[in-house]
């Protein structure tokens, strides 16, 4: 009898273990308490950029020129708007108005918002949830991180939000946003974190938090809150084809915002470290050519002359796998990791070079210290047929200046390979490297081409319009079609 019971128990246990794992269901969250506590510290921000005054109409004409008095300077702005009186250029540009959101993060009245909310503002008015209004002082603003710090003065301590940690947030967690979309004050939306570490070209030093929280115009600068009511991000931008919310919202991690705010309050500016590399993506074919087991890391397309990376020994063709121990899965991961450190920071960079890992010690430069240099090459022309399907020639001094002074290399004159054409190679491109080997002149090119293995991916470092990038493709034998 006992054996039968034990056997039945084992069967039931095995059936239970074989069931698919379901999401943990605890009911939908209630945000009311969170909003009640956080709401008083979230503010509406209205900005004005003053227009310019033109000459008085009486200086040119004693009366009105039309029944609506469009040329009369004494007509109040209210009536001009009500009767749709056009703005006459002779009276200058009108004031420009804008609005956004922000939040108080210290009892002394310091406020965080977006740079783009207060950019070029002549007057900044902060309205609190209890409808008190203050004229704010702009402490500092940083375009690269889209962060601005304001200060308002009150006779008593002000409500403020507690700051959390975005680094511990995981995709799938509930979050909420409070702000002023379309100038509606204290509007609340909620959703989940969709992803982390997103970047865009305008703020490449910011690893944005992506969420599906509804963010619209006017939400910019408002807080993204976790379920404890702590700020984990500042709402910055949306991806939209219509100008409105479509499910993709992006927030600046609070750690980036506070680091930026600290520098703005202390020095009035933000300094970032510079590694001195131009990086790109590692494709599948590039990974094969570089000796990697998968497409990972940031491919070094170029290094700044006498920059931090070059001084340490990092070379074009290296694939950066880690910065200060933090993994670099894609090239987008690198700029935020570097930019989070001030100039002078000592760091380690792990790279893959020809399939072998190397570690370099670097001392970061300042962000604006990049420079470039160039050298000349030899004359001559390659044979018409080679493994790459390219005809190249050496570069004269005059031609080199026309091409933007690339260092070494040979210039492509003809492209016979369809594979080379499909990946984007064009006549006038300068080949600087083949599979991580420098091409100084035509002799180097011909020697390296002979080492290319059939039907294997090859990586070329190519110079075009003053910029060097890597292009990888697999040259095929002509009889393969």
Describe the overall structure.
The model is unreliable at 19-23, 54-86 and 369-380 (pLDDT under 50). Strand 17 (319-323) and strand 18 form a beta hairpin. The protein has helices spanning 2-18, 32-38, 77-82, 115-118, 254-267, 284-290, 308-312, 334-339, 397-402, 418-422, 442-450, and strands at 42-49, 96-104, 110-113, 123-127, 133-135, 137-142, 147-151, 174-179, 187-198, 208-211, 223-225, 231-238, 249-253, 273-274, 277-280, 298-303, 319-323, 326-327, 346-353, 356-363, 365-366, 390-393, 410-415, 430-434, 437-438, 458-464, 467-473. The chain is of the alpha+beta class and 481 residues long. Helix content is 18%, strand content 30%. The strands form five sheets. The protein has a seven-stranded antiparallel β-sheet. A six-stranded antiparallel barrel has the order 8-9-10-13-12-11. It has eleven helices and 27 strands. The chain is elongated and about 80 Å long.
- Largest beta sheet: what is the strand line-up? 5-4-1-2-3-7-6
Strand content: 25-35%
Number of helices: 11
Q: How would you sum up the major sheet?
A: 7 strands, antiparallel
Percent of residues in helical segments?
Answer: 10-25%
- Uncertain runs are 19-23, 54-86, 369-380
The CA-CA distance between the termini, in Å, is: 73 Å
């Amino acid at each position: 009898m006992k054996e039968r019971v034990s056997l039945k128990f084992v069967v039931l246990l095995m059936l239970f273990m074989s069931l698919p794992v379901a999401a943990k269901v605890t009911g939908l969250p209630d945000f009311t308490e969170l909003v009640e506590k956080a709401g008083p510290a979230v503010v509406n921000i209205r900005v004005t950029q003053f227009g310019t005054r033109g000459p008085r109409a009486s200086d040119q004409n004693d009366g009105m020129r039309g029944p609506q008095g469009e040329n009369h300077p004494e007509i109040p702005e209210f009536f001009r708007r009500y009767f749709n009186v056009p703005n006459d250029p002779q009276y200058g540009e009108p004031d420009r108005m804008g609005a956004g959101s922000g939040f108080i993060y210290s009892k002394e009245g310091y406020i965080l918002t977006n740079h783009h909310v207060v950019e070029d503002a002549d007057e900044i008015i902060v309205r609190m949830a209890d409808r008190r209004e203050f004229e704010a002082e702009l402490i500092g603003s940083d375009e690269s991180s889209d962060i601005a710090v304001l200060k308002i003065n009150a006779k008593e301590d002000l409500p403020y939000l507690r700051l959390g940690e975005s680094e511990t947030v995981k995709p799938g967690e509930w979050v909420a946003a409070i702000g002023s979309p379309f100038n509606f004050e204290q509007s609340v939306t909620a959703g989940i974190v969709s992803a982390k570490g997103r970047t865009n070209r305008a703020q490449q030093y910011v690893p944005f938090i992506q969420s599906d929280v509804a963010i619209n115009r006017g939400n910019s600068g408002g807080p993204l809150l976790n379920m404890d009511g702590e700020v984990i991000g500042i709402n910055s931008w949306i991806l939209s084809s219509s100008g409105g919310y479509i499910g993709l919202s992006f927030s600046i991690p609070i750690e980036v915002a506070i680091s930026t705010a600290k520098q703005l309050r202390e020095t009035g500016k933000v300094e970032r470290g510079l590694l001195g590399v131009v990086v790109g993506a590692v494709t599948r074919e590039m990974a094969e050519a570089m000796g990697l087991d998968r497409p990972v890391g940031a491919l070094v397309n170029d290094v700044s002359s006498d920059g931090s990376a070059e001084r340490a020994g990092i070379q074009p063709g290296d694939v950066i796998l880690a910065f200060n121990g933090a993994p670099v899965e894609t090239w987008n991961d690198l700029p935020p990791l570097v930019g989070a450190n001030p100039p002078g920071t000592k760091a380690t960079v792990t790279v893959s070079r020809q399939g072998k890992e190397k570690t370099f010690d670097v001392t970061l430069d300042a962000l604006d210290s990049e420079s470039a240099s160039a050298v000349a090459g030899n004359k001559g022309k390659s044979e018409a047929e080679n493994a790459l399907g390219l005809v190249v020639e050496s570069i004269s001094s005059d031609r080199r200046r026309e091409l933007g002074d690339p260092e070494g290399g040979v210039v492509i004159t003809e492209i016979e390979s369809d594979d080379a054409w499909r990946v984007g190679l064009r006549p006038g491109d300068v080949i600087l490297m083949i599979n991580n080997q420098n091409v100084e002149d035509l002799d180097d090119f011909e020697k390296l081409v002979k080492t290319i293995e059939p039907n294997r991916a090859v990586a070329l470092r190519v110079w075009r319009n003053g910029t060097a990038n890597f292009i990888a493709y697999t040259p095929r034998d002509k009889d393969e079609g």
